[in-house]
Amino acid sequence: MKSILENRPALAKEVNKVAEVAGYLWQKGWAERNGGNITINITEFVDDEIREMEPISDVKAIGVTLPYLKGGYFYCKGTNKRMRDLARRPMENGSVIRILDDCASYVIIADEPIAPTSELPSHLSVHNDLLSKNSPYKASVHTHPIELIAMTHCRKFLEKDVATNLLWSMIPETKAFCPRGLGIIPYKLPSSVELAEATIKELQDYDVVMWEKHGVFAVDCDVMQAFDQIDVLNKSALIYIAAKNMGFEPDGMSQEQMKEMSVAFKLPK
Ligand code: 13P
Ligand code: ZN
């Protein structure tokens, strides 16, 4: 069977980036079983031949109406599929979907009828919001980073920007490479529309948001950059924990040092 990626190097490159990141998520221990999901907006790579491809699934409801997604195409990790498998075989552990004209349903078009991630309402709501703002962001990543999730089991870290400031203060790069910080979303049922709505709301101010006691959700121009933002935050959490394990509370960079960083790197906050 011919893959949708065949003779489409630009599209294949983006899907292969998803596979590369999926491998990192597994190596980091952030992707137990089927944990985590990735979607990318691939509409820009779609040609007439793809637009004419017959659906290979029934029409399925998204659960929300998303006007900016009309006629859009997304590569999505499959529900219940493992990141470690996706890393080696992205088109056997994910699929390409087409959003239908009602903006509330989709069909799978390639390569196999693999049902997309259960977090599709969150992912697609976020892509819809990004398109409504003409954002250059095309990728969304949800994963289960151990140390960041552990922090959400402590009430003080759930207060606005407490975790952000602590994580920024552990090493200068975290503020430079995750300049909008870490938003916090109080616990909501996984895959629910409520979680999707809270996610878009919080992403107005942050590129990475925490789903309390569950995982993070990040957006960026491509999947590699979304991964990098999560990775620098979790690195800071590891430094914090290392200091605590050595028996002391880390000093953290001072507010002045962090302000100096913002000026030098022209950071938004
Ligand atoms: P899926 O296998 O449906 O993508 O779910 C994994 C997950 O992390 C849910 O939050
Ligand atoms: Zn999850």
From TrEMBL:
The gene is rhaD. GO terms for molecular function: aldehyde-lyase activity; metal ion binding. It comes from Bacteroides faecalis. SUPFAM superfamilies: AraD/HMP-PK domain-like. NCBIfam families: PRK03634.1. One of its GO terms (cellular component) is cytosol. Keywords: Lyase, Metal-binding. Signal peptide: none annotated. GO terms for biological process: pentose catabolic process. Residues 16-241 form the Class II aldolase/adducin N-terminal domain. The keyword Protein biosynthesis does not apply. This is Rhamnulose-1-phosphate aldolase. The keyword Metal-binding applies. InterPro entries: Aldolase_class_II_sugar_metab, Aldolase_II/adducin_N, Aldolase_II/adducin_N_sf. PANTHER family: 3-OXO-TETRONATE 4-PHOSPHATE DECARBOXYLASE-RELATED (PTHR22789:SF0), FUCULOSE PHOSPHATE ALDOLASE (PTHR22789).
